[in-house]
Amino acid sequence: MAGHSKWANIKRQKARVDAVKGKTFTQLSRAIIVAARNGVPDPSGNFQLRTAIEKAKAAGIPNENIERAIAKGAGTYADDSAQLEEIRYEGYGSGGVAILIEALTDNRNRTAADLRAAFSKNGGNLGETGCVSWMFAQKGVVILSDAVDEEKLLEASLEGGADSYEIAEDDTAEVYVGVGNLENLSQHLKNEGFVVDEVELRWIPSNSVEVSDAEQARSLLKLIDTLESLDDVQNVTANFEMADQLMELSVT
Question: Which residues form the TACO1/YebC-like N-terminal domain (predicted)?
Fold first, then answer.
């Protein structure tokens, strides 16, 4: 089963050398709000909400903040008037690298202005809708720890309907599946004895740009960091590949 090493590897490498990682309370809370709004406000019957709550708890968000976010999504929080909407933005980084940004915002003009400034200051430009999204396909991803038995992982992945998987050097694994089958695959892998660390939806690029120039690498990583630091931004995905050594040099 072929893997999707491109952006997954970039994110892993980046996390090892970049101290500014992890979602802010605002970003995680907004994910809960949208999940509760899009489905029932009960995590037992809403997989998206259950996943968002698990991520929030892992980040140390207090239970009262989580409950408030659920109430906002359900429309039962009296002091909330902000209406969040999900928007996907697209653009180019240095060297024509394709970048997708998923945002949750209560003011799309503010978000667009912030994104445009981030791109222009870091060698890229915000594009029109559809300019790069055709290069990406959304997949469900189940992230496992201690996936050392590849034969067992292959068998369980096939039985669970997975499309592919990849095992990293630290024996973590990412298993890819169609969006509609994500919950079933996650439960199947748990039943087979695997430790599921996280489940998520991710945009997977169909092609990649190899980055070998240090200045281009530095520019791209700074752009990604700037975009991820914006409160309205939930996820950033790009289609470049980069060697570990260049990654480490570029973020110092």
Answer: 5-75
